[in-house]
TrEMBL record:
CDD domains: AdoMet_MTases (cd02440)
GO cellular component: nucleus
InterPro entries: RNA_cap_Gua-N2-MeTrfase (IPR019012), SAM-dependent_MTases_sf (IPR029063)
Protein name: Trimethylguanosine synthase
Example of a GO MF term: RNA cap trimethylguanosine synthase activity
Pfam families: Methyltransf_15 (PF09445)
Species per Swiss-Prot/TrEMBL record: Spodoptera frugiperda (Fall armyworm)
Reactions that this protein is recorded to catalyse: a 5'-end (N(7)-methyl 5'-triphosphoguanosine)-ribonucleoside in snRNA + S-adenosyl-L-methionine = a 5'-end (N(2),N(7)-dimethyl 5'-triphosphoguanosine)-ribonucleoside in snRNA + S-adenosyl-L-homocysteine + H(+); a 5'-end (N(2),N(7)-dimethyl 5'-triphosphoguanosine)-ribonucleoside in snRNA + S-adenosyl-L-methionine = a 5'-end (N(2),N(2),N(7)-trimethyl 5'-triphosphoguanosine)-ribonucleoside in snRNA + S-adenosyl-L-homocysteine + H(+); a 5'-end (N(2),N(7)-dimethyl 5'-triphosphoguanosine)-ribonucleoside in snoRNA + S-adenosyl-L-methionine = a 5'-end (N(2),N(2),N(7)-trimethyl 5'-triphosphoguanosine)-ribonucleoside in snoRNA + S-adenosyl-L-homocysteine + H(+); a 5'-end (N(7)-methyl 5'-triphosphoguanosine)-ribonucleoside in snoRNA + S-adenosyl-L-methionine = a 5'-end (N(2),N(7)-dimethyl 5'-triphosphoguanosine)-ribonucleoside in snoRNA + S-adenosyl-L-homocysteine + H(+)
Family to which the UniProt record says this protein belongs: Belongs to the methyltransferase superfamily. Trimethylguanosine synthase family.
Length: 125
């Protein structure tokens, strides 16, 4: 059996898109799946969706997901990746700053997994 990295699961070969930062910050699929199975709500808001690892798993267990990211390229990757998983119709995609949008949003749960900053995060002073 060939070991897999499980970033966005066994569908990686189907065209999953990740940018350089996402390779280091996407939640492994097995972890994202566990979280989504444990916290099943009607509407979940993923405040920092990145490439969509958690968003996709929440869309599999919840009725609706609101995926937010400040980076339009990350939203485009999430849309693409959610389409590969067949859950894009359950997701509302928003490009914007979660902290500015939060007062106007409604959800049963807000999932917060902010980006960790990439390879050089420890060098920032």
């Amino acid at each position: 059996m060939k070991p897999t990295l499980c970033l966005l699961g066994n569908r990686f070969d189907e065209g999953i898109k990740l940018d350089r930062e996402s390779w280091f910050s996407v939640t492994p699929e097995v972890v994202a799946r566990h979280i989504a199975e444990k916290y099943q709500y009607d509407v979940v808001l993923d405040a920092f969706c990145g490439a969509g690892g958690n968003t996709i798993q929440f869309a599999r267990t919840c009725n609706r997901v609101v995926a937010i990211d400040i980076d339009a390229n990350k939203i485009a990757m999430t849309k693409h990746n959610a389409t590969i998983y067949g859950v894009h119709e359950k997701i509302e995609f928003i490009t914007g700053d979660f902290f500015e949008l939060a007062p106007r949003l409604k959800a049963d749960m807000v999932f917060l997994s902010p980006p960790w900053g990439g390879l050089s995060y420890s060098k920032v002073s």
